[in-house]
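Table 4 source record.
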Amino acid sequence: MAAVRIDAKELHYTPLNQQIRKAICDGAKDIVIDNVLGQRFIGDGLRGDDVTITVNGVPGGDLAMFMSGPTIIVHGNADHAPGNTMNQGKVIIHGSGGDATAHSMRGGRVYVRDSIGYRGGIHMKQYMEKRPILVVGGSARAFLGEYMAGGLLIVLGMNGQVPVAERGVGSGIHGGEIFVRGTVEDKYLGVGAKQLPATVEQMAMIHPIIEDFAKAFGIDPEPLISAQYSRIAAASARPFANKYTPE
């Protein structure tokens, strides 16, 4: 079946998403959406491991929310919360992501070539083998990985960018892990977060993920693979224990 092409110019997000769902119900495996400009909820709740949706433009908030399986490729930036509570699949953004990228993500992968806004990876979580992954090529703003309960977050700081230079990194983290190329200044670490150099075993774990990220954007992985990384994780399972009144 040939690719289904949808022109989203001046199209409200409701009929746009209805067209996407109909195309999938009719058997389409390859959908291309042109002239996207702020339409929300694209890909939300969709299923199908063999479905690829290409978005040409700038999708609105909650791209791929609750999605379980498809691949979404964005040729442009994405608004707030791409990958929100996503279960499975892949989102590849050839640009930047807004605030709360990968908010509460539960599975699958989100790759952002450039940078993301505030509170990236907030409340990411995992269950057994279901582990969400967010990789950011550029930098992240404040409160990265806030309240993380699981998952994996990698910030690469490509093109000479400082991966994270704002406060609250890992604030309230009680599960999962954040890897940063280089180090984060201690003053930027949030409550309950600790930073240590990544071990050989940890680097072996993230190398295939970095290579997959580089492949998605046609980037040479070698400078990223050979670099030094820091791992930020929970200092305690109860980062705010001292905030509660003792019994």
